[in-house]
Design brief:
alpha+beta, 14 strands, two-stranded antiparallel sheet, Extracellular Endonuclease, Chain A, 8 helices, globular, eight-stranded mixed sheet
């Protein structure tokens, strides 16, 4: 009886192994045929291991385990949002402040803070030609809209801002990107927005700073500007120091306590000058000179946890905040 059971077991095992080997052989042949005929990069990745399969010590020749049918996802079409590689290189010529959740648009680059639903930083490269307004650009056709490349868990929405009392404040200013309609429209993605006090800040003093940055293109051949939020500590009545900030909407979009701009101007002969500003997110007397908000760039770096223009040695800078280095 035991011999009969052993015989049946051996027969069934042989059939199973034979079917497995046959299936692997069929899959290998199919993948090789598909590889020879396809340019799909996902398919190539799925099948390349099978095509190059070799025997390994102590393993059978069919030592790679894979699905019977390779998974071939739809190949995403190139997004019209994404900047050309050479444009990204131009914008980020002097280094990335950080590498968290980078997004590149046609004419600016940002790093997105998924927890706060506001960018860590937004980077722009401006020239006199690039900031000229084209008669074909109509800002009224630009709509605030969520960036669907961000996971739904981490997006900010227009409904978060509705009734909050805060403006959807641009980080990369729309006025810096009015040479092309698409460039201007892309500054209205909510990834480029942060809750800002409206009257007295976004529409006034912050706007003055944005106009000042555009005006620098008349002095410098290239202007590189990094903009972002800060959440700065404040001493409370109990004598302790806290970091406190409001959040708005169902997605808890953080309201920054301050905003910064760090700017490098590059002259035609390659000389570099740096300016850095921090403004509180509150009503500011519009007569207050911009120079009042100048701060050492190192203080912004420490507060933001970022390194600005790290490809530039401080020795290369001719001036910092208007003072010779």
């Amino acid at each position: 009886m035991n011999k009969k059971l052993a015989f049946r077991f051996a027969t069934l095992s042989g059939l199973a192994i034979g079917s497995f080997i046959g299936g692997i052989a069929y899959e290998r042949k199919r993948c090789i045929t598909l590889l020879d005929q396809s340019t799909n990069p996902y398919l190539v990745h799925a099948c390349k291991d099978i095509k190059t399969l070799t025997a390994m010590p102590a393993l059978p020749i069919f030592g790679t385990v894979s699905a019977a049918t390779p998974f071939v996802p739809d190949v995403p079409q190139p997004s019209k949002l994404v900047a050309e590689p050479n444009r990204v290189s131009e914008i980020m010529k002097y280094g990335f402040p950080g590498m968290d959740n980078i997004r590149s648009y046609s004419d600016y680059v940002l790093s997105y803070d998924r927890r706060n639903r506001v960018a860590h930083w937004v980077f722009e490269h401006l020239t006199a030609e690039g900031v000229k307004s084209s008669p074909n650009v109509d800002r009224s056709k630009c709509d605030f809209k969520p960036d669907e490349s961000i996971h739904p868990f981490f997006r900010s929405l227009n409904t978060d801002y509705k009734g909050s009392g805060f403006d959807r404040g641009h980080l990369a200013a729309a006025g810096n990107h009015k040479s092309h309609q698409q460039h201007c429209e892309q500054t209205f993605y909510l990834t480029n927005m942060a809750p800002q006090v409206g009257s007295g800040f976004n529409r006034d003093s912050w706007n003055r700073l944005e106009k000042y940055v555009r005006k620098l293109t008349k002095t410098y051949s290239n202007v590189y500007v990094c903009t972002g939020p800060l959440y700065l500590p404040k001493k409370e009545a109990d004598g302790k120091v806290y970091v406190k900030y409001q959040v708005i909407g169902n997605n808890s979009v953080a309201v920054p306590t301050h905003f910064y701009k760090v700017i490098v101007g590059e002259t035609a002969d390659g000389k570099l000058e740096l300016e850095s500003y921090v403004m509180p997110n509150q009503v500011i007397d519009d007569k207050t000179p911009l120079a009042v908000f100048q701060v050492p760039p190192e203080s912004v770096e420490r507060s933001a946890g970022l390194l600005f223009f790290d490809k530039i040695s401080r020795k290369q800078l001719q001036k910092i905040n208007g003072k010779k280095v």
